[in-house]
């Protein structure tokens, strides 16, 4: 029975990966709100990621993030997003716009995770623009309760 279940899972994973799409994702997060208890001046985050979008409503991403604060810091980033299955509306009648919610994590020394919400704008068939909000949560007060607004480009 275990072999049958394993074969079914492998077949399902293979068909899902064959139907999905890999894309480069570059984004910039600007810290617009932080608590008065923050122990450093965290200003922004630059992300260079690879995103895998499944054919339905899920995408996963991972890569490197560069945190600009009192000192420069880099980290690995992992996350996932759930999109609306069809565009919420079309801007100008031809540009599709989807909404999404997601969650991600920075694999720092103390770790940081964030929920996110945003809009994905389909500029062309291969290029998309993301506008999003994130709120970082961490044991490290340099990142905890920092809210960001960001923009990203997927190509």
TrEMBL record:
Provenance organism: Rhodanobacter aciditrophus
Keyword line: Signal
Record's signal peptide: 1-18
Keyword Signal appears in the UniProt entry: yes
Protein name per the record: Outer membrane protein beta-barrel domain-containing protein
